[in-house]
Amino acid sequence: MSPQKKLLIPVSSRRKAVDDFFPFNLLPVECQLHVLSFLNELDKCSCALVCLSWSCLVRSWKLWRVADYSRRGAFHLGQEGLLVSNREFERWKSWVHHYTHHLVSRRASLLTLKASFDLGDRCNKWSELLSHLLDNVHCRDLSHLDLNWTFTLFEPLDLRVHSSSSSHQDSITKMDQVTSFQELLGKLTHSCPRISKMRLHFDWSDLSVSLLTRFQQLRILELKYFWVFKLVTPSTLQTLTKSLPNLKSLTLHILVPLRNLGISYTLESKSLEFLDVSPSRGLVFSCLKLPALRELRAKKIVRGITLDRRTRLRIQSRWPCLYHVLQQGTPKLQALNNERLLPTWREKSYGELTAILEQSCYCVQHLDSWLW
């Protein structure tokens, strides 16, 4: 008996069956864009090769909301200024320029910008690259900025350059970094006034502080160390926090120079709910006016400097106990160094907080050591 012949299905019917199985093109354009928005950048580019309609979808500025220059090279364990071969550096540099051109050609509407470039690098001109990006994409709605302007993610392995470096040349480079950073920060104040989350290194100059206070929508702010070891004046820090009316979270990396030991700070903000000064060294508060603060993280870091008893007591006598500062200026405080506080912690003696205060308070009672 001859085998039964299979019926042939017309091509048009097969196409119809495929469309019925995956009716993506029948969705509204906004729904299609929403689905594609969950893909990473590489997958989006792959989708653009499927067909003409998908290629048009992928070209939409609505799909390009993130500019992340730090994602390339994540396998290097997040190291900054990593030395690589000249060939690898040129490949990475080429990728950076192609990536920038890609975002510009798509007329990206950025919500997030992450980058790590040495803005004082006159050879590679990273500052001009970022300025070019901001000038040619839509960044009015940018809300998240994560910028390390002191290091480039990769550095070429050029022994001749490193062997000829000097402290004088390093100082010139650092000043170039500050100047370029201030120029970029000024551009951001005009191009991206809606930034609500910012993480960057900060030089604490008067100009930089003035520019930073223009970001009135800031809610989360982290300011990290910079090379210049100069004093952050109490008035500067107080001006910054008072000038940001919507600030909810603040993380400070401040190093108080040894010549300025004994100075203390006043912090005032009506909106601040979270304060982390644990990365700082020598930062002591004499007064806190934080009516909305709910959590504080502070850590006492001993630098290993030996002081005689008279000098130590003279310095510490200027500082109040952290417990009394918190008792008077933080009525809504609920957590200290990740420890939940009892509702009655202000009414009783701080015996229950002794262990925590010994880790974070610089007063005479909680720092009985000649080692600073």
From TrEMBL:
Residues 21-67 form the F-box domain. Gene3D superfamilies: Ribonuclease Inhibitor. InterPro entries: F-box-like_dom_sf, F-box_dom, FBXO4, LRR_dom_sf. It comes from the Eukaryota. PROSITE patterns: FBOX. This is F-box domain-containing protein.
